[in-house]
């Protein structure tokens, strides 16, 4: 039986498009930073004083940054299309709320990006810019689960807590990753400020958080296997595969002193990690507490 027969295929397609575009802009944002194009458009919302578009005298960096800004309109268009479809098919209140959160977060993301330019790529603002993208990806994965042919498995409190801990530590990994980036050489512009933290120290802290997350993922896989939780097992394996990929790229970055092109592949891994850990989270749900029947 086709699991989509009772669901709306177009809505599901819009949810997938939202996820793909929001993952994509993480990668294009990395290209902007690693090509030194972060201030290619030196103000916001204009590209430069008096004009919204770059001109030839501004150089190639302005076109790279402007191209990334244009992608925001693609994200907005997809978010609006998704929201319109939600109203047309009368979705649940939860899915409608998530669709609105997706749209509003993209608009907020554009504002934070603009502020980062006005503050000449302050590393803490740039970090917030990335972390909001990660949060949007988690929202998009949840929408896919609600709109598509996906199910979740009821689990006990210990298992649910383990999955939530894995999600939380993954968020810490990504936050510490932004600290590493903000302390390293790939600032997005040669004149941009850095955090001032010792990059060796923050890189080691980042590495420790990664291994804690890997250990939790292995625990998720072990519990899912022993308890016959097929969905949880599947997404634990996917997350583990992404973590292995990220470890290979991450340590290669470390030993090659943050090679820009390796950083781009690492950002691909960030997007994949957010989606995979979101799917693991969505694959389980708490077992409802039993309702005790009381005699009146």
From TrEMBL:
<keyword id="KW-0479">Metal-binding</keyword>
<feature type="transmembrane region" description="Helical">
    <location>
        <begin position="261"/>
        <end position="284"/>
    </location>
</feature>
<feature type="transmembrane region" description="Helical">
    <location>
        <begin position="124"/>
        <end position="141"/>
    </location>
</feature>
<dbReference type="Pfam" id="PF02628">
    <property type="entry name" value="COX15-CtaA"/>
</dbReference>
<feature type="transmembrane region" description="Helical">
    <location>
        <begin position="236"/>
        <end position="255"/>
    </location>
</feature>
<keyword id="KW-0812">Transmembrane</keyword>
<feature type="transmembrane region" description="Helical">
    <location>
        <begin position="66"/>
        <end position="84"/>
    </location>
</feature>
<comment type="pathway">
    <text>Porphyrin-containing compound metabolism.</text>
</comment>
<protein>
    <submittedName>
        <fullName>Cytochrome oxidase assembly protein</fullName>
    </submittedName>
</protein>
<keyword id="KW-0350">Heme biosynthesis</keyword>
<keyword id="KW-1003">Cell membrane</keyword>
<dbReference type="InterPro" id="IPR003780">
    <property type="entry name" value="COX15/CtaA_fam"/>
</dbReference>
<keyword id="KW-0408">Iron</keyword>
<dbReference type="GO" id="GO:0016020">
    <property type="term" value="C:membrane"/>
</dbReference>
<dbReference type="GO" id="GO:0046872">
    <property type="term" value="F:metal ion binding"/>
</dbReference>
<feature type="transmembrane region" description="Helical">
    <location>
        <begin position="96"/>
        <end position="118"/>
    </location>
</feature>
<keyword id="KW-1133">Transmembrane helix</keyword>
<feature type="transmembrane region" description="Helical">
    <location>
        <begin position="162"/>
        <end position="183"/>
    </location>
</feature>
<feature type="transmembrane region" description="Helical">
    <location>
        <begin position="12"/>
        <end position="32"/>
    </location>
</feature>
<dbReference type="GO" id="GO:0006784">
    <property type="term" value="P:heme A biosynthetic process"/>
</dbReference>
<dbReference type="GO" id="GO:0016491">
    <property type="term" value="F:oxidoreductase activity"/>
</dbReference>
<keyword id="KW-0472">Membrane</keyword>
<dbReference type="InterPro" id="IPR050450">
    <property type="entry name" value="COX15/CtaA_HemeA_synthase"/>
</dbReference>
<feature type="transmembrane region" description="Helical">
    <location>
        <begin position="203"/>
        <end position="224"/>
    </location>
</feature>
<keyword id="KW-1015">Disulfide bond</keyword>
<keyword id="KW-0560">Oxidoreductase</keyword>
